[in-house]
Amino acid sequence: DIQMTQSPSSLSASVGDRVTITCRASQGIRNYLAWYQQKPGKVPKLLIYAASTLQSGVPSRFSGSGSGTDFTLTISSLQPEDVATYYCQNYNSAPPWTFGQGTEVEIK
Amino acid sequence: EVQLLESGGGLVQPGGSLRLSCAASGFTFSNYAMSWVRQAPGKGLEWVSAISGSGDSTYYADSVKGRFTISRDNSKNTLYLQMNSLRAEDTAVYYCAKDRCSGGRCYSFHDYWGQGTLVTVSS
Questions:
Q1: Structure confidence by residue, pLDDT tens digits, B78-106
Q2: With an 8 Å Cβ cutoff, is A69 touching chain B?
Q3: Are A23 and A31 in contact (CB under 8 A)?
Q4: Which residues, 6 or more positions from A23, have their beta carbon under 8 angstroms from its beta carbon?
Q5: A87 touching chain B per CB within 8 A
Q6: In chain B, which among 10-49 make CB contacts under 8 A with chain A?
Q7: A104 to chain B nearest CA, in Å?
Q8: Which residues of B7-19 are buried (b: 16+ CB within 10 A; e: fewer)?
Q9: How far is A100 from B44, CA to CA, in rounded Å?
């Protein structure tokens, strides 16, 4: 099975800061990677798919990059409403389509 | 508007069974693969199972293989998860999720999620 490892597990940043979360796959998954945002007590929301394609309606301050085994989610200017846990997910050809363990983002 | 509404969760004893349902609306249900994803209390997301639009192909996480069965009734626009031999570690919120399909191909990432239904396995 492909393992997905996110770092850091949590971070604290100031409003307006640039925030970067990384996700590493244990083997190559081409660009078959999605990012989700889950606010406290809420349902997960799709942010990005195909590693870098922004889901409709998602603010442009969110961006994704990477291919193969290393991926990045970037928030260009952190806003208070971005407080959430972020998950990456591999959806390469064969199951299981594993999630990373999550990265909790807080405001400093 | 896409809507997914789960039901069927509750408290069950270890070794017991439960069937979850997910009523879908707002899209052509039979054209889309669907998945179940769970989240144990205070933990991360875990993909559980998926089914193709026709229902011909099913997939399971190793943690539930042989105990859970995913199915769908396209005439009722409803997805199911039959859970047998339940264990304490199956305690979680179970989400029904719609897979993204494009150009006749479906990908197992999820653009719409239900609100979830809580399953608690405890004596």
A1: 999 999 999 999 999 999 999 998 888 88
A2: no
A3: no
A4: A4, A5, A6, A33, A35, A66, A70, A71, A72, A73, A88, A100
A5: yes
A6: 35, 37, 44-47
A7: 11
A8: ebbeebeeeeebe
A9: 8
Q: How many angstroms separate the CA atoms of B49 and B123, rounded?
A: 26
Residue A15: band (very low, low, confident or very high) from pLDDT cuts 50, 70, 90 = very high
- Cβ distance B44 to A99 less than 8 Å, yes or no, reads yes
Signed CA dihedral, A90, A91, A92, A93: sign only? positive
The Cα–Cα gap between B79 and B67 comes to 17
d(CA A63, CA A71): 11
pLDDT beyond 90 at A95: no
